[in-house]
Write a structure and sequence with these properties.
Oligomer: single chain
Structural class: mainly alpha
Shape: extended
Helix content: over 70%
Radius of gyration: 26 Å
Distance between the termini: 31 Å
Largest sheet: 2 strands, antiparallel
Strand order of the largest sheet: 1-2
């Protein structure tokens, strides 16, 4: 995403480590326990629940269970259990929404022992909580901005193209792995055709390229 930073990898890593080291010195100071309590109070709320809900929605509804089943078949040769599909489509989002709502309902201002944090410290805590959520919309906007095309619709078209190419590659992987293909009739008896790996590499790559080019041509006509 940031090729300029990769050119000076050691400098980037050094800057990150140095900043984390200097920030960590605050925790070792005399008032470090108050900073630890403030950060611990707001770090996981509500970002953990929000990220969990978004992951369930994206995987279960946006990406779709059908594509997930195809990915599982390609990688492991097995389908995802129905109980797991129901869990991350309905059960997990429901429980996470309940937990998130209850967390907001039972929210109390931070305190350490008898010490109650001032208003400005509470505001800093909320900034810490929001900062963990900012990367998600930031990366989304950055990706849309740097993707060719002027609309989100064109971005969805490019996503469909990538999915079509991946579906083609998943079918081709069956041939490359040497697994059984559709039955052929030889000498009056059905026989499964097994294609050796070395003989099919070039054909698989050529077929993938042809399928990708055909799909792009169809999208251009429409």
């Amino acid at each position: 995403m940031f090729p300029q930073l990769m050119k000076r990898h050691w400098l980037t890593v050094g800057a990150v480590l140095l900043s984390l080291f200097l920030f960590g010195l605050i925790y070792t100071s005399q008032g470090g326990i108050f900073v630890v309590t403030l950060v611990d109070w707001y770090t996981f709320f509500p970002s953990t629940a929000v990220f969990g809900i978004l992951e369930c929605i994206v995987v279960g509804w946006c990406y779709g269970t059908k594509r997930l089943h195809e990915d599982a078949l390609t990688m492991w040769g097995k389908r995802i259990p129905r109980a797991m599909v129901i869990s991350f489509k309905f059960v997990c989002p429901l429980f996470l929404v309940v937990i998130c709502c209850y967390s907001f309902y039972s929210y109390r201002p931070p305190k350490y022992g008898d010490y109650i944090y001032p208003t400005w410290a509470t505001a800093v805590g909320w900034l810490i909580s929001v900062s963990s959520l900012l990367p998600l919309p930031t990366v989304f906007i950055w990706t849309v901005y740097n993707t060719q095309g002027a609309t989100v619709k064109e971005l969805s078209v490019s996503i469909r193209k990538e999915y079509a190419v991946r579906c083609c590659s998943s079918v081709s992987l069956t041939a490359v792995s040497g697994k059984s293909l559709p039955q052929t009739v030889e000498s009056g008896k059905p026989k499964r055709q097994i294609i050796p790996m070395e003989e099919t590499k070039l054909e698989v790559l050529e077929g993938m390229m042809r399928a990708q080019n055909d799909f792009v041509d169809v999208e251009r006509r429409t």
